Every structure is written in structure tokens, then in C-alpha cells.
């Protein structure tokens, strides 16, 4: 389990990083926290001639409020975001999702941007980004562009980023008062990737749900939005019904940890539980 | 129940482990920590298909890579092998023995037989280069359909080992028993079930590892290895290479677990030995990485057990037939089935009038079977689940049916129908203690209340009797070589191969207790063929019993000599002396006393002060041979679970063990051994599944997929002790494997109890969430 050899680059500016990527094309790969990339290199499931390390790049590690959004720099450590009062206050769903990522040792190294750029369909943060309609900022040799989360996750481990682009930040919308959020996931053991997971945000006015978002992970090739279930919730369905609607729109596959049928069945359960928890919070 | 056996100054005390400061601060010395001048590194090219003929191997590009020093294939190494068999198992039939072995070669010969089969061995300046070279080797394989699963292996006309006539490794046919058939025919009830457990792997924290240097100028083969038995490896390496055994030196420093996997040298390690012998120039090191460990190191379990019980209306056992099917993969440690042992101990804690056992071990194109903590434990897995199935069939409480059949103190000594003789076991007492620790009535109330809310709680019980310290062949005895140096400090050399059993603490406890010195003045030397006696190493729950006995005997001999010298010096009678904390004194006259440090120099330097005729020096050797072929310990496990009815997730609420391992050397170590075994048992039911697809591809080759329980999944393990002494001088009973033996059926029974009112009656592991929810769905539809 030793990686094959590679050239290591440690740029300090975004332009340098993207220039390196442009120069080496698909022979280069970005290194962030290394918690997904390094195991793949060590198992020789992937090999790259060049690694471009983002850890020393300036300007990628801030958490800041920018016109109605919380902007999280790409290399903000998951543990830093997890313990950030700003994140807890502005994007509670992100705060709630972060502790579900692996173990604290992994979150100490792993980055918010890395998790989203890696686009593992069983990961929490891509589902959060999708559910909250986050905007992904991509930096390339020609400058930056914004990509809606809905357009970002193309398929398993595949994103809308070009070879010469890095994810530089993620902007999460901040919800107003009367909102509640919840994360529910099933894992075989503490810290494992989810067999099935749901992230939910709701906003209520009195007894009425005025805003609802449901993201699913571990049950498709990408994180999924349970749009039909959101619509059901907005039109008065209860949590159990919405859960069933969410489950009826997915077709997860089997693996050694659980069958696709299992994942479908429990999705109805965890969506229900997440909605109930989110509603409780919204109403409290 | 309080123990009536009083603890000594050391034996019976929870002495903190002497090895821990070193190990817990990260300063252990495992194989990979050993660095030798000029050392080179090994990587293997392994088969990525389960079965096929090797058409060609092209190593030219790899050889051209700078830093690559040698590349060997099966054609280079296999023909050089002298003999490949294990002392503990004895020679194969063609060499006059009785043990059937798979046709063992260090590297694959003309064909590959499982995914991970080593084909090419590369020696390079470092592991990175060696792995780069491995990527450059081109192996062309004519792929054939793999033989996967024991039923396929039996049905097919294809052979796992080409040229052989059967895929059966060893068979114990079910004995003919017309009177048993008649008994079954006339029995009030006869129940049959098939139980199975999935394949697991031992997962030592330190994977396999070996450094070998053949010094061709001196003629010595020097080995550093992660092994449970340096003697075994010395003899095996000598047979492999032809280097005479006295010129083979094997050292095992710290060994990070094994659970049976490191007892006998496997093919990969043999390949490194053969390669080093051929290469000659420099030491070569192979550190198995975790993927290799999960893909290619021998594995355990994967058994199917057919049981038929005849019982009365009251649930009294009349007899049993049991047949064990074992999938032993391609290259098991030996092709021998553990069915012989499993059948012999099948009656366990119950008064079975008759048991007819049989078994068959079957080769498949998967990794070979290892001994894994309680290698025969399929008998307890089947028997203890069967007791619950029968109880439910008859409408009897599973606890009650056990009480009606369990062996009591007044039955002892008890000879089972399979001729095992129990002299001091306490299955009934441990059962009652464990149930009391749980408070069954309170649990049943809680369970009923929970069920009224739609929650699923269950409790399980399992009892077993552990055949520890099996004494036959090389396992029959152990030796201690003890020396007291000039300053009165003691070194005891033993054949043990500590790999987590705390022997560095427990053996000095025994020595200090019986010699009468301070524990810090005793050092255990082991894992070194130059200084340790020949012996079987550590495994099979033997070291406390057999090595502990030898250590005690040596200490008593040494004490005797010390006392005689001191008495002579003090002009007193040896009978009037007492020894305490390293000081020999005249009873009642504490002023007349000599510390060991003043006695020892006399033995070495002042022959004129010794009793007349006494030999100089302070060295003794002693051996211990247990009285019986087995030293029986026993325990009862009880646990409670809650299962989420909507997701099938199991949470273990409480886990209780009541055990009797005789006199405890160190209760903390006993409890640690129990906890470790229980965790492995939990893993085997809920998490660990070394699964293959139909083409023989292993699907759990990283810890992302091979799930071992971690701290949050494991409850506190509550332990109660019952102490009845083993026959013989020490009173110790071995207990290293029991935790792993009883935990699987105990947990399965708890799950069964939680779900049976729904019509769910599990018989096959794993019982993960997906399996449980599927069974609940099916029961609902039925
Ligand atoms: C034992 C273990 C358990 C885990 N459990 C979970 C879990 O439960 N849930 C979960 O979500 N994750 C889990 N992870 C993965 C972990 O969260 C990773 O940190 C994360 O997936 C990747 O983040 P990273 O910063 O480590 O990225 P890296 O590993 O450095 O990179 C991952 C990939 O993303 C690319 N990349 C990274 N940053 C950028 C960027 N800014 N721009 C463009 N491309 C980029 C890299 O090129 C690479 O392809 C686990 C990991 C381990 C080892």
C-alpha cells in the first residue's frame, strides 16, 4: 500500500494552483485534506504524476458572511467548521451534518471543499449543499465562476469542475427565523459512510410549512433532492407520507452492507424522523 | 458468588501489565520496526482472479526498474523446497504422518487458486520500488470459473487443486448408529436445523511480517517474525530450506496479535524464507499491508452445521446428530477439519445421552482457513442456538430448558457421551450467576413494557465448556529454564510467544509468587530460539496452564536450592526457613535473614560456603505436563439487545459473562481476554463478513468494507467469577478463546428472542440490519 511516485507542488496562490492544473491536465490532481485521495493513491486505485497541494494556498480558509450567504473557503477543516459559532448560527444544517463525517481525526484533516469536490454519493456535505441550494465557486485560469449545487454533482465522484479548476469556496444560503433542521443517517458502525441518509430543512409559519428541503445521500449515484417529498410536505402531507414519497422516487443499488431494497425501505423511515425533528426545532 | 480461593501476593492480583508502558507509548518493537543494515524489501504480485492457468509471466520491465534486486517466480522457489509441513500438525501421509495438507508451495505454480495467490516475489531497495515493480510484471492467466461455496465444490467435477480426485480435504463420516436411529424414531420430538456462520478473518493489529537473512558465509538462517511460536518457525524453515535446524535462529519481539493466524508459517512467509535463502546477499523484509492481510492471510469460520436433536416433552435431551461443513479455501493451515474436535466437545455443558458427530472440510477457490480463536467453536454456535429453537418449539423458556439439561456439581466427575471427562466445571453455577447479574425478572418486565410500545428487546444465553490447553504431540508440555544471576535477579526463558496475552506480566507473577521474590526482579525471556526452550509457543489457551505450570515448578525448584544454601549459611534447618520478598529468613527470627542478592554470589563464587555436595550455580529447568488431555474451563454469557423495528439495527444493551477459569493469575488479564473475545464474537454476528462474489472476488479487502466492531458498538462487558480449581498443582484453567466461542450464539439468541413473536427465527450469520429487516418483512408477509 505505497502510492506510485508523483511530483508534489505546494503553490501559495490560487492562480499558481490553477496554472499547474492547466499545465498538467489530467495528469494532475488537487490535494486537500487527503482523507479520500491518499487512501486511493496508497491502494493504487488512482495515480497522478502531479499533486497540487492546496493547504498552503492563501485565501481559501475563511468562514465569512457575504450578502445573505455563509461563504466557507475550500480548505476550511471539517473540524473547524463543526466547531464554528458562525456556522452554527447561520447554517445549522451544516453544523449538524459535520459530526457525522467519519471520526474526529478525519475531520481534523478533511476539508469542507474536499468533501464536496470529492462528491461521494454517501457523503453528508454534498447532500447539505444540494439541499440548501448552495453555490459552488470554481476558480480556473480565467477567473472564477459560480455553479449551482444542482448542477455541480454530475455522477459518482464526478463534478462540473473542469480539470484546470479548483473549488475555491461554497456559499450556503442563510435561512430566516422559524426554521428547523435535522440530519438522520443509518450507518453500520459509528463513523461509517451512511447506508442511507437524509438532511432536512423546514420553515414554518404557525402550523403551515412554508419552506422545505430534503437531501438524500447513500441512495443514488449522486446526492439527491427529494423534490416530490418536499412538495408533499408543503401541501400538508405529514412526515410519514413525505418519507414514503421520498422513498418511492429512489432506486439505490445493492452492496455488501445493505440491499437496495433495504435502503429504499429505511429512507422512508429516516426522512420521516428527520422531518419530525426539523419540525420540532422549527416550532420550538 | 464470592470466590473462596484467596489471592497470593501476586497470583490472583490485578497486577498492572509490565509491558504496557512500552506498548502504550508506541515503543513496542514489531517486525516492521526492525531495521537491519543493507536490508531490502519484498512485495508480491498476487493473482487478481480466483482460478486459472498461468500462461506466461513477464518480469523483464520490472527487473529493469532501478532499485529492483531480484525477482522470483514459483519456478525459481518451489522446486527448492525440501519439505513444507508443521510440527504441531505432524508430517503429511506421504512422509509417514496422518495430516492431510493442501499441496503447499510458496508461490503459485502452474495455476492460481484464489484472488491474492502470490505469484511473483520482488526484492527491491524499498517497498515503494518493489510495488512499482510489481505493477510492471505482466502475468497472463487463462481464467477458469472459480469454485466458490462448499456446495459447488462438492458438486463440481472441477478441482481446486488440479490433479487431485476430490475437493474434500478431510471427512469424518457420521458414524452408523442403528440404536441411535431407533432412539430418534421413538423420540417424542425430533428437531432439525441448519446453522451457518459467515467467514471472518483474524485481523491481528500487526499483520504478518518477516525478515529473513541467509548468511551464506556463516551458514545461518536468521529470522525475525510476527509469530506465535518461534520453535515452530525454526523447524519449518529448516525443513523448507534444508538449513540444519540448529543453524536457524528465529526471533519474535513484540507480536501484535494473531488469534491463531500466526501459529503456523503460511505460504507467503515460506516464500520469503525461500527467497532469502536463494538470494543470500542481504536481509529481506516483508511487511504485510492491510489489504494483503484482508485478501490473502488465512481466514476463519465459514461453516454450515446440520443438527438434529431428539428431546422429551419436557425438553430433556435424548440425543443429537451433528454434521459440520467447513469451507477451508484453497490453502488452509492444514486441510484437516476441526470437526473432530467440534464433535468431541459438542455435548458441552449438557447431559446428552448420545451425540453422533460427523464433518467434511471442502476446498474452494478462496483464502485458506486459519485457526481463529476457538477454531472448533461452531459446536457452541450450533448447540446454543439449537437449545433456544427447541425451547420455543416446545414452549419452554430457554433458561428453563438449560436448567433441565445442564451438568451440576453433584454430577462431577462427569464423562460425556463423547468420552470427555469433566472434573471441575461449573456450568450450572455460572448460568445462575450470570442470570442473577442480569436480573431476569426485571428484564422481562422491561421487555414486555417495551413491546407494548412497539419496541423490540431480547435476551440471550449461551453456555460452553472450553477445552483449554489441549495436550497432545508438541502441545503436551512446556518447559521453563530459570536462572538467578549474581545479584539475585531472575530470568525465566520459555517457549511462549506472547502476542497480547500479557505473559510478560503473568509469568513473572507466578514466578515471584512461588519463588518468594518481588515481581520486578523477574524477567520472562521468550520469542527467541537461541535462549528459549523448544516448545509449542502460545495458542489454544495453553500458556497460563502449561507454561504457567512450568514456571511454577521452576520457581519451586529454585526456591528449594536458595533455601538450602541460606539455611546452610545461617546454620539452620531448611525446614525452618521462610522466603518473602526476596529474603530468606529463619521463621520467628527475622534478624537471621539473607537476601537473594547475598545468596546468589555464594552459589556462583563461593563453593566452600555451599552445603556439602551441592552443585554450584543457580539454574534450574522444569517442565509441566497437564494431567489430562484437556483442562476444562467454562462460562455462561448473557446479553440483552434492542432492535429498531423500522431499520433492523441492533444495539447491545448489556453483556454479561460469568466464568470459571480456576485460579486466576491476574483477574484484570482474564477480563481483558474475555472482552477481546466477546468483541470478536459480536463482530462475527453483526459486522464482520469476509464475503466473496460468485467469481471468487473478495468484496471486503479494506476496513471500509470489513467491519470490525469499534468502541461505540460494544457495551461494557460485565464479568462475574466463579473459582473452582483445576486438578493438579496450579489450579489454572485456560480461558483465552471462550469469549469468542460463546458470544456469537449468545447474541444470536438475544436477537432471536427479540424477534420470535414476529415469526423471525434466524439461523444464519451475519445478522446485520439488512438481513434482519428482510426477515421481518418476510415474516410480516407470511
Ligand atoms: C475512515 C474514514 C471515514 C470517513 N467517513 C466519512 C463519512 O462518514 N462521510 C463523509 O462525507 N466522508 C467521510 N470520509 C471522507 C472524508 O470526509 C474526506 O475528508 C473527504 O471526503 C475529502 O476531503 P479531503 O479534504 O480530505 O480531500 P482529499 O482527500 O484531499 O481530496 C478528495 C478529492 O477531492 C478533490 N479535491 C479536494 N479539494 C478540492 C478542491 N478544493 N478543488 C477541487 N478538487 C478538490 C481531490 O482532488 C480528490 O479528488 C471518511 C474518510 C475516512 C478515511
From TrEMBL, chain A:
Protein name per UniProt: Unannotated protein
Coiled-coil portions: none
The organism's taxonomic lineage, starting at the top: unclassified sequences, metagenomes, ecological metagenomes
GO MF, one annotated term: oxidoreductase activity
Keywords: FAD, Flavoprotein, Oxidoreductase
Domain annotation FAD-binding PCMH-type: ranges: 1-177
InterPro entries given in the database record: CO_DH_flav_C, CO_DH_flav_C_dom_sf, Diverse_Substr_Oxidored, FAD-bd_PCMH, FAD-bd_PCMH-like_sf, FAD-bd_PCMH_sub1, FAD-bd_PCMH_sub2, Mopterin_DH_FAD-bd
Gene3D superfamilies per the UniProt record, alphabetical: 3.30.465.10, CO dehydrogenase flavoprotein, C-terminal domain, Uridine Diphospho-n-acetylenolpyruvylglucosamine Reductase, domain 2
Automatic annotation (TrEMBL), chain B:
SMART domains referenced in this protein's UniProt entry, alphabetically: Ald_Xan_dh_C
One of the record's GO molecular function terms: iron ion binding
Keyword line: Molybdenum, Oxidoreductase
Pfam family, one: MoCoBD_2
Domain Aldehyde oxidase/xanthine dehydrogenase a/b hammerhead: 25-145
The UniProt record lists the keyword Oxidoreductase: yes
Name listed for the protein in its UniProt record: Unannotated protein
Source species of the chain: freshwater metagenome
Amino acid at each position: 500500500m505505497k502510492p506510485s511516485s508523483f511530483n508534489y507542488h505546494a503553490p501559495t496562490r490560487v492562480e499558481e494552483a490553477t496554472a499547474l492544473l492547466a499545465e498538467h491536465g489530467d495528469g494532475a490532481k488537487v490535494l486537500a485534506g487527503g482523507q479520500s485521495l491518499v487512501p486511493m493513491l496508497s491502494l493504487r486505485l488512482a495515480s497522478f504524476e502531479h499533486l497540487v497541494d492546496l493547504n498552503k494556498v492563501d485565501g481559501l480558509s475563511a468562514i465569512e458572511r457575504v450578502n445573505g450567504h455563509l461563504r466557507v473557503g475550500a480548505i476550511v477543516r471539517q473540524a473547524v467548521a463543526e466547531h464554528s459559532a458562525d456556522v452554527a448560527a447561520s447554517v445549522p444544517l451544516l453544523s449538524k451534518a459535520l459530526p457525522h463525517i467519519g471520526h474526529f481525526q478525519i475531520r481534523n484533516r478533511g476539508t469542507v471543499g474536499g468533501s464536496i469536490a470529492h462528491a461521494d454519493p454517501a457523503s453528508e456535505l454534498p447532500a447539505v449543499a444540494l439541499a440548501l441550494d448552495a453555490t459552488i465557486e470554481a476558480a480556473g485560469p480565467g477567473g472564477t465562476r459560480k455553479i449551482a449545487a444542482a448542477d455541480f454533482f454530475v455522477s459518482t465522484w464526478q463534478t462540473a469542475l473542469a480539470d484546470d479548476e479548483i473549488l475555491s469556496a461554497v456559499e450556503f444560503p442563510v435561512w430566516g427565523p422559524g426554521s428547523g433542521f435535522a440530519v438522520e443517517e443509518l450507518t453500520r458502525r459509528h463513523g461509517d459512510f451512511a447506508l442511507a441518509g437524509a438532511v432536512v430543512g423546514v420553515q414554518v409559519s404557525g402550523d403551515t410549512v412554508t419552506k422545505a428541503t430534503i437531501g438524500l445521500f447513500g441512495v443514488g449515484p449522486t446526492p439527491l433532492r427529494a423534490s416530490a417529498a418536499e412538495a408533499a410536505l408543503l401541501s400538508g402531507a405529514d412526515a410519514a407520507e413525505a418519507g414514503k414519497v421520498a422513498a418511492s422516487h429512489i432506486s439505490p443499488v445493492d452492496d455488501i452492507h445493505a440491499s437496495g431494497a433495504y435502503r429504499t425501505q429505511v429512507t422512508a423511515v429516516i426522512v420521516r424522523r428527520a422531518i419530525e425533528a426539523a419540525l420540532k426545532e422549527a416550532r420550538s | 458468588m464470592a470466590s473462596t480461593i484467596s489471592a497470593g501476593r501476586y497470583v490472583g492480583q490485578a497486577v498492572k501489565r509490565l509491558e504496557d508502558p512500552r506498548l502504550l507509548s508506541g515503543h513496542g518493537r514489531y517486525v516492521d520496526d526492525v531495521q537491519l543494515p543493507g536490508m531490502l524489501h519484498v512485495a508480491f504480485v498476487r493473482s487478481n482472479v480466483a482460478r486459472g492457468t498461468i500462461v506466461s509471466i513477464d518480469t523483464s520491465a520490472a527487473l529493469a526498474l532501478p532499485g529492483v534486486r531480484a525477482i522470483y517466480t514459483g519456478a525459481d522457489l518451489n522446486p527448492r523446497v525440501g519439505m513444507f509441513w508443521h510440527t504441531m500438525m505432524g508430517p503429511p501421509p506421504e512422509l509417514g504422518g496422518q495430516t492431510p495438507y493442501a499441496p503447499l508451495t510458496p508461490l503459485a505454480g502452474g495455476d492460481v487458486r484464489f484472488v491474492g495467490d502470490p505469484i511473483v516475489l520482488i526484492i527491491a531497495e524499498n517497498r515503494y520500488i518493489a510495488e512499482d515493480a510489481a505493477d510492471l510484471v505482466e502475468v497472463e492467466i487463462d481464467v477458469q470459473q472459480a469454485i466458490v461455496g462448499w456446495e459447488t465444490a462438492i458438486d463440481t467435477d472441477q478441482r481446486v487443486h488440479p490433479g487431485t480426485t476430490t475437493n474434500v480435504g478431510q471427512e469424518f463420516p457420521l458414524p452408523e448408529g442403528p440404536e441411535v436411529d431407533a432412539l430418534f424414531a421413538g423420540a417424542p420430538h425430533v428437531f432439525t436445523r441448519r446453522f451457518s456462520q459467515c467467514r471472518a478473518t483474524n485481523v491481528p493489529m500487526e499483520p504478518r511480517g518477516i525478515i529473513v537473512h541467509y548468511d551464506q558465509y556463516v551458514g545461518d538462517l536468521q529470522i525475525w517474525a510476527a509469530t506465535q511460536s518461534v520453535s515452530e518457525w525454526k523447524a519449518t524453515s529448516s525443513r523448507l530450506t534444508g538449513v540444519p535446524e540448529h543453524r536457524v535462529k528465529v526471533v519474535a519481539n513484540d507480536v501484535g496479535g494473531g488469534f491463531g493466524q500466526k501459529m503456523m508459517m503460511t505460504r507467503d512467509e515460506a516464500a520469503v524464507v525461500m527467497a532469502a535463502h536463494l538470494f543470500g546477499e542481504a536481509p529481506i523484509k516483508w511487511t504485510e499491508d492491510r489489504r494483503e492481510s484482508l485478501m490473502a492471510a488465512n481466514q476463519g469460520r465459514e461453516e454450515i452445521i446440520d443438527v438434529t436433536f431428539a428431546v422429551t416433552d419436557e425438553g430433556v435431551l435424548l440425543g443429537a446428530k451433528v454434521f459440520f461443513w467447513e469451507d477451508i479455501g484453497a490453502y488452509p493451515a492444514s486441510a484437516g477439519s476441526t470437526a473432530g474436535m467440534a464433535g468431541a466437545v459438542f455435548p458441552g455443558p449438557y447431559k446428552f445421552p448420545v451425540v453422533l458427530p460427523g464433518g467434511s472440510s471442502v476446498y474452494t477457490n478462496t483464502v485458506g482457513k486459519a485457526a481463529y480463536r476457538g477454531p472448533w467453536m461452531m459446536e457452541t454456535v450450533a448447540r446454543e442456538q439449537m437449545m433456544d429453537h427447541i425451547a420455543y418449539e416446545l414452549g419452554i423458556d430457554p433458561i428453563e430448558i438449560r436448567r433441565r439439561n445442564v451438568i451440576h456439581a453433584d454430577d462431577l466427575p462427569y464423562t460425556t457421551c463423547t468420552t470427555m471427562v469433566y472434573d471441575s466445571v461449573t456450568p450450572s453455577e455460572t448460568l445462575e450467576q450470570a442470570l442473577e447479574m442480569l436480573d431476569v425478572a426485571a428484564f422481562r418486565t422491561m421487555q414486555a413494557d417495551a413491546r407494548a410500545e412497539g419496541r423490540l428487546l431480547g435476551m440471550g444465553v449461551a453456555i460452553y465448556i472450553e477445552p483449554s490447553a489441549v495436550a497432545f504431540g508438541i502441545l503436551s508440555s512446556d518447559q521453563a529454564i530459570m536462572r538467578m544471576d549474581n545479584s539475585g535477579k531472575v530470568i525465566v526463558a520459555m517457549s511462549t510467544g506472547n502476542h497480547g496475552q500479557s505473559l510478560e506480566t503473568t509469568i513473572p507473577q507466578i514466578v515471584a509468587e512461588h519463588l518468594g521474590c518481588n515481581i520486578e526482579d523477574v524477567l520472562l525471556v521468550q520469542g527467541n530460539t537461541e535462549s528459549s526452550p523448544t516448545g509449542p509457543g502460545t495458542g489454544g489457551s495453553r500458556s497460563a496452564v502449561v507454561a504457567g505450570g512450568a514456571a511454577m515448578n521452576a520457581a519451586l525448584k529454585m526456591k528449594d536450592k536458595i533455601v538450602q544454601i541460606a539455611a546452610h549459611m545461617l546454620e539452620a534447618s531448611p525446614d525452618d526457613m521462610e522466603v518473602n520478598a526476596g529474603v530468606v529468613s529463619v521463621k520467628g527470627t527475622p534478624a537471621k535473614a539473607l537476601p537473594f542478592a547475598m545468596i546468589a554470589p555464594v552459589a556462583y563464587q563461593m563453593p566452600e560456603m555451599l552445603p556439602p555436595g551441592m552443585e554450584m550455580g543457580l539454574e534450574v529447568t522444569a517442565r509441566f505436563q497437564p494431567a489430562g488431555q484437556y483442562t476444562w474451563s467454562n462460562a455462561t454469557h448473557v446479553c440483552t439487545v434492542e432492535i429498531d423495528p423500522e431499520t433492523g439495527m441492533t444495539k447491545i444493551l448489556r453483556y454479561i459473562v460469568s466464568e470459571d477459569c480456576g485460579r486466576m493469575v491476574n483477574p484484570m488479564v482474564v477480563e481483558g481476554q474475555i472482552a477481546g473475545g466477546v468483541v470478536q464474537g459480536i463482530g462475527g454476528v453483526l459486522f464482520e463478513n469476509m464475503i466473496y462474489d460468485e467469481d471468487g472476488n473478495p468484496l471486503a479487502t479494506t476496513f471500509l468494507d470489513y467491519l470490525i466492531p469499534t468502541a461505540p458498538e460494544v457495551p461494557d462487558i460485565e464479568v462475574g467469577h466463579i473459582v473452582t480449581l483445576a486438578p493438579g498443582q496450579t489450579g489454572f484453567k485456560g480461558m483465552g478463546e471462550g469469549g469468542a466461542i460463546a458470544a456469537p450464539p449468545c447474541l444470536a439468541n438475544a436477537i432471536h428472542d427479540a424477534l420470535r413473536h414476529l415469526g423471525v427465527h434466524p439461523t444464519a450469520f451475519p445478522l446485520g440490519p439488512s438481513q434482519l429487516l428482510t426477515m421481518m418483512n418476510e415474516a410480516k408477509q407470511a
